[in-house]
Amino acid sequence: MSIQIQAKRISAPDIRGRKGAEPVVALTSYHAHTARIIDPLVDFILVGDSLGMVMHGLETTIPVTLDMMILQGRAVMRGSARALVVVDMPFGSYEESREQAFRNAARVLKETGCGAIKLEGGERMAETIRFLTERGVPVMGHVGLTPQSVMALGSFKAQGRDTKDWAPIERDAKAVAEAGAFAMVVEAVSEPLAAKITAEVAIPTIGIGASPVCDGQILVLEDMLGLSERVPKFVKRFGSVADHIREAVEAYVGEVRGRSFPAAEHTYAMKKPSS
Ligand code: KIV
Questions:
Q1: 3-state helix/strand/coil string of the chain
Q2: Residues within 6 Å of ligand 1 by CB
Q3: Active-site residues: which are they?
Q4: pLDDT class for 1, splitting at 50, 70, 90?
């Protein structure tokens, strides 16, 4: 009999337990190779529906489908072993009814093997979040700027920069926490509002453009690596991967055109004839 010892992945309750403790660190990934690199370093990996804009060059996340999320979710699961993997529910896959949300969330969990799903919306989604969590689906919420509502909002603009706009965002955050979510992304809100929400809810707030007061931070990997062409104000570029790719490709093109690549060490010789 062989015994396989598998490293235990970080779970949704582990992340829930990090409220007010050491900051939770997260990044997005859509592929096995980037998942493999970031897995030992971060607490959770989000397979975000931003993949529509980042990987596919779409203007918004609206056209992203459940099948696209499942395909990339499986790739990220294959490339990771330790971090919690959270897969985004795309626009149209959960808003119609609690039952639709459960059916599609169950598909994501079964077909990817991921540990949790994320969905956007506050008060209006609270009943759905409760329905899912009561049935064993770990849910991460997402309040503040919710990119799937871009057509209703008019643009991707920061939220809560005037105190008169705070109340609905605070109600959203409280509703998500009280409905049973284990954590929530807080996107593009002013620092004082993020501080108020973080103090008021019992679950970790994961900020993206929501200041250092949150319980954790997340960024889109390609944005922080310097691979995305345009990035929001809140992104810090920690690398310049686009420059590295360009330099490597220029070197390759030069060597192919100059016939110095492939060299002898990259070329198969004939087998020695057997005597
Ligand atoms: O889709 C995504 O990448 C996200 C992050 C911006 C949090 O939801």
A1: CCCCCCCCCCCHHHHHCCCCCCCEEEEECCCHHHHHHHCCCCCEEEECCCHHHHCCCCCCCCCCCHHHHHHHHHHHHHHCCCCEEEEECCCCCCCCCHHHHHHHHHHHHHHHCCCEEECCECHHHHHHHHHHHHCCCCEEEEEECCHHHHHHHCCCCCECCCHHHHHHHHHHHHHHHHCCCCEEEEECECHHHHHHHHHHCCCCEEEECCCCCCCEEEECHHHHHCCCCCCCCCCCCCCCHHHHHHHHHHHHHHHHHCCCCCCHHHCCCCCCCCC
A2: 28, 46, 48-50, 88, 185, 208, 218, 220
A3: 187
A4: low
